[in-house]
Specification:
The protein is mainly alpha-helical.
């Protein structure tokens, strides 16, 4: 039995490791929903009167709704931050490309000047008779 549980746990970890970021999020939320459902089922099974069950469900629903709204706000903040960081990254790449192009132009000009300098030295030496 232990070997079966370890095998299942390994398969779950292996599946989780092959997921992309979106799939990780979905997997996480699915786990959280299952966990909340288990907690609610356990809590309701221990209660007797139906009115207290209804109140408990309403209270749990209110808590989960508040938590969902908080999570959505945090998600939106994180998304804005990610967008801002992506813009900064793109700007940095653009600036780097511009700097690389300017460097290449300057190196080409320096090579051209070096060639001209050599030509002038050769002309100057040939005129002076060296």
């Amino acid at each position: 039995m232990r070997e079966v549980r370890e095998s299942i746990a390994y398969q779950q970890r292996d599946t989780y490791s092959r997921m992309g970021p979106t799939e990780h999020t979905i997997y996480y939320f699915d786990r959280e929903v299952k966990k909340a459902n288990r907690e609610l089922s356990h809590m309701l099974s221990t209660m007797d009167p139906s009115l207290s069950r209804l109140e408990a469900v309403q209270k749990k629903y209110t808590e989960l709704l508040a938590e969902m709204k908080r999570t959505e706000r945090e998600h939106n903040k994180a998304k804005k931050r990610a967008d801002q960081l992506q813009k900064e990254k793109d700007k940095g790449i653009t600036d780097l490309n511009k700097a690389t192009q300017a460097k290449d132009k300057l190196e080409k000009i320096a090579r051209d000047f070096t060639k001209e300098n050599k030509k002038l030295k050769v002309r100057s030496n040939s005129r002076n008779g060296i």
